[in-house]
């Protein structure tokens, strides 16, 4: 990494990235990232990082483990070499990593990204992974499940060992043998079971001597009774080792067959780990992807230095290269000038490294061939360099390198020498760098550079804001306004004697004083303009909020208007249908009357018909013009005198009742309504005449309450029909009428209550619903709806 990038502390950002990576190879890749100058490549790298962040937000971060580089082990296995159990376990870990990434990617359905080409190259091998996991317990032990033969051999070894121990235990517990033994424990020497015999009783225990204790007092003897058993165990152990070697060789061959894919997938996993480490760093720093160009324009919105605590860093807005080529930043010490330089340089370098940056939407970063930096004091006693000399050497190197695709950042240009000469030299250096086409940011305290920026249209002043009331910097970068050093105010706040401050102010040249006064006035104007801007922004926000409220109220009024119009339309249709039905009924009555003109009671019928016609027309007028406050009984005349037992309709109560007495001389009569008997004026009553139905030559009166089948087509919007207790024919007849009314009322779902009973009525209802042209579908009710006693029908 070159010294300029180190000055910007890009190495610290890459170290943060490496700390997030899960394995050593990805850490190495992170630390070796360098800014790229190819526009297409930088855009693609940033896009991949941004898409990795989006995937992590939507589906969670993919699982990454600390997998090892298995390329060498896989290549050795492919060549036929036998690799260690540690290498086989590392290969198994790599296979688990491949499988987990492939499984995670399968969960990201219907999402296309630039990372698809990496995920599509993953080739999990579940069979090999399961075989390795089943076979290997640790880097020193093979599992019994590795093969049936190994499991059988180990079972035989265990049985033989148990039998041998039983034999030895019997010998140890024998009272005669016990006096020969040093201790009552069976031990193992050279892989064979032996007894610790006292040296003086060596001849009393027949067997093979395997070892002697350090003191010579104990001799380890393998009794002849167990020699054969020990030999069998040693043979079985030899077979066990042969089987283990066979299993390891087989596992190595299987890994060798998969070596090429394994090596490729290792690279894919490290690359994916790097992109998702970048995305995790972006999430940690609250980063976004800027627009990336090569036009030399740098535009940062609410940019933060990534190495400063997010809660302490003050976001800055900065622009360079669009309206002006150079930016001269002035202001007090510790006001944030150097941080502004580093922020611009570091964010540019991070973008060129494919890293997202902590800025707001609308920011753009240009690709630069060179980012040249002179920040900080590099004086050297060993090299006999002063601060001025050190800065001069760096600036000379920058002047030799800078071109039209360079970003140059110079801190305290011209400092460390005579102010007049330093300022003149700084102006000359700026002119030279601008002539080379470089984009330039400079910090300074020199008044001459402020004036130079004011006089040159291609140079812009900027200042780090300072609150003169609290005597503290706000760290805000104000572009377009030069700043004051505020040295007198800061010194006075730190306790400098006032007479010294006064003398120093008197020593300042008149030209500098006037410039400071102009800058002060500009600063005051800027603050006032910002206040007005904030007020305008607030008023615009309130206006927008009020407009939104008005828009919503208008939309609500439009919806209400539409609803009311729909209700009026439905009501008009209902009036029309009712009027049609009642008109048809009058026509039928007139036709019937015409046919009966030769009968004796024709005159009486005509009189009665006139009364009924008048009553019907009054009802139609009431329906067609339902004016609020209208007397519902106005114009009504009883067709005859009321008699005991007549059914009447109480208009103001909208209930039916039965006359239970003769009217008195004051036109009052007793009316029975349910359990209540009330005395009412006959003007409140309307006579309910029973309908006459002809069967053959006989005329029979039908009770209106139970048997009347009217022709009025009322659109009342009922959604429930109760026909419990009706005969099948009568129930189906009522059902047809109810469906017609529901269709006229635009009702799409109706409920028919037929009860459970014998099921005949339900069967008749279902048969009719199957064949009815207005029924789309139907079903029995569920729990809470009435179950089998209710049918729910959906209408077309």
How does this structure look, described?
The protein is an alpha+beta fold. The protein folds into five domains: 3-125 and 258-285, Orthogonal Bundle (MutS, DNA mismatch repair protein, Chain A, domain 3); 146-252, MutS, DNA mismatch repair protein, Chain A, domain 3 (Orthogonal Bundle), CATH 1.10.1420; 291-500, 3-Layer(aba) Sandwich (Rossmann fold); 636-713, SH3 type barrels, CATH 2.30.30; 720-795, Ribosomal Protein S8, Chain: A, domain 1 (2-Layer Sandwich). 50% of the residues lie in helices and 17% in strands. The strands form eight sheets. A six-stranded mixed β-sheet has the order 12-13-14-10-15-16, sandwiched between helices. Helix 6 (85-107) packs across helix 8 (126-135), helix 6 (85-107) crosses helix 12 (259-285) and helix 8 (126-135) runs antiparallel to helix 11 (224-257).
Domain count:
5
Average predicted confidence as pLDDT: 80
CATH architecture of the largest domain: 3-Layer(aba) Sandwich
Strand content: 15-25%
Kindly identify the CATH topology of the largest domain.
Answer: Rossmann fold
Global morphology: flat
Q: Which parts are unreliable, with pLDDT below 50 for 5 consecutive residues or more? A: 379-384, 624-630, 692-717
Helical fraction: 40-55%
Euclidean distance between termini CA atoms: 76 Å
What is the alpha-carbon Rg in Å?
51 Å
By DSSP, the count of extended strands is 27
- Given this structure, which CATH class of the largest domain is correct? Alpha Beta
Give a quick account of the main beta sheet: strands, pairing sense, barrel closure. 6 strands, mixed
- Label the structural class: alpha+beta
């Amino acid at each position: 990494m070159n010294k300029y990038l180190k000055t910007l502390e890009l190495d610290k950002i890459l170290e943060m990235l490496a700390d997030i990576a899960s394995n050593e190879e990805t850490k190495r890749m992170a630390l070796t990232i360098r800014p790229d100058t190819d526009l297409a490549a930088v855009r693609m790298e940033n896009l991949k990082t941004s898409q990795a962040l989006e995937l992590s937000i939507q589906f969670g971060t993919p699982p990454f483990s600390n997998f090892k580089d298995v390329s060498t082990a896989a290549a050795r296995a492919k060549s036929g070499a036998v690799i260690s159990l540690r290498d086989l376990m590392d290969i198994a870990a790599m296979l688990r990593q491949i499988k987990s990434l492939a499984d995670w990617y399968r969960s990201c359905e219907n999402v296309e990204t630039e990372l698809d080409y990496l995920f599509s190259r993953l080739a999990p091998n579940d069979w090999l992974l399961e075989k390795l996991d089943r076979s290997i317990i640790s880097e020193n032990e093979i599992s019994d499940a590795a093969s049936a033969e190994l499991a059988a051999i180990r079972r035989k070894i265990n049985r033989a060992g148990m039998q041998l121990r039983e034999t030895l235990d019997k010998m140890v517990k024998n009272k005669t043998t016990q006096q020969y033994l040093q201790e009552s424990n069976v031990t193992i020497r050279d892989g064979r079971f032996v007894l610790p015999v006292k040296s003086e009783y060596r001849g009393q225990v027949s067997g093979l001597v395997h070892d002697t204790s350090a003191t010579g007092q104990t001799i380890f003897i393998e009794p002849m009774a167990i020699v054969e058993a020990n030999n069998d165990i040693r043979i079985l152990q030899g077979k066990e080792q042969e089987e283990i070697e066979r299993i390891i060789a087989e596992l190595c061959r299987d890994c060798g067959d998969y070596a090429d894919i394994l090596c490729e997938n290792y690279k894919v996993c490290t690359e994916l780990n790097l992109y998702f480490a970048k995305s995790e760093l972006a999430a940690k720093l609250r980063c976004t992807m800027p627009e990336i160009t090569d036009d030399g324009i740098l535009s940062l919105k609410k940019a933060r230095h990534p190495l400063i605590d997010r809660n302490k860093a003050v976001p800055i807005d900065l622009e360079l290269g669009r309206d002006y080529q150079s930016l001269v930043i002035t202001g007090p010490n510790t006001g944030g000038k150097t941080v502004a330089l580093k922020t611009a340089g570091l964010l540019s370098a991070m973008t060129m490294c494919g890293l997202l940056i902590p800025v707001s939407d609308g920011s753009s970063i240009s690709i630069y061939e060179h980012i040249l930096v002179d920040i900080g004091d590099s004086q050297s006693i060993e090299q006999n360099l002063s601060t001025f000399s050190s800065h001069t050497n760096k600036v000379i190197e920058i002047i030799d390198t800078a071109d039209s695709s360079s970003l140059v950042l110079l801190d305290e240009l011209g400092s460390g020498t005579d102010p007049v000469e330093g300022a003149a030299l700084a102006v000359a250096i700026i002119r030279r760098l601008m002539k080379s086409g470089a984009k330039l940011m400079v910090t300074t305290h020199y008044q001459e550079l402020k004036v130079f920026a004011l006089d040159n249209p291609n140079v812009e002043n900027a200042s780090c804001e300072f609150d003169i009331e609290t005597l503290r910097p706000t760290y805000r970068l104000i572009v377009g306004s030069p700043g004051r050093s505020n040295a007198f105010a800061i010194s006075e706040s730190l306790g400098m004697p006032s007479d010294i401050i006064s003398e120093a102010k008197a020593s300042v040249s008149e030209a500098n004083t006037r410039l400071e006064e102009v800058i002060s006035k500009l600063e005051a104007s800027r603050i006032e303009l910002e206040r007005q801007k904030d007020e305008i922004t607030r008023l615009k926000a309130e206006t927008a909020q009020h407009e939104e409220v008005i828009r919503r109220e208008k939309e609500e009024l439009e919806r209400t208007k539409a609803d009311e119009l729909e209700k009026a339309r439905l009501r008009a249709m209902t009036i029309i249908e009712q009027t049609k039905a009642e008109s048809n009924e009058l026509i039928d009555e007139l036709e019937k009357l015409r046919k009966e003109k030769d009968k004796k009671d024709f005159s009486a019928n005509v009189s009665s018909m006139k009364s009924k016609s008048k009553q019907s027309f009054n009802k139609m007028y009431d329906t067609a013009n339902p004016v609020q406050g209208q007397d519902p009984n106005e114009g009504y005349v009883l067709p005859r005198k009321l008699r005991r037992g007549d059914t009447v309709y109480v208009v103001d109560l909208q209930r039916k009742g039965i006359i239970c007495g003769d009217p008195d001389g004051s036109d009052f009569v007793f009316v029975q309504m349910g359990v209540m008997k009330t005395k009412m004026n006959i003007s409140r009553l309307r006579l309910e005449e029973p309908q006459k139905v002809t069967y053959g030559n006989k005329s029979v009166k039908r009770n209106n309450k139970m048997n009347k089948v009217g022709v009025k087509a009322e659109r009342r919007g009922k959604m429930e029909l109760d026909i419990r207790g009706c005969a099948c024919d009568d129930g189906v007849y009522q059902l047809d009428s109810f469906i017609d009314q529901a269709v006229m009322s635009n009702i799409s779902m109706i409920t028919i209550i037929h009860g459970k009973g014998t099921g005949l009525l339900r069967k008749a209802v279902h048969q009719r619903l199957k064949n009815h042209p207005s029924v789309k579908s139907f079903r029995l009710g569920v729990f809470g709806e009435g179950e089998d006693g209710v049918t729910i029908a959906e209408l077309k």
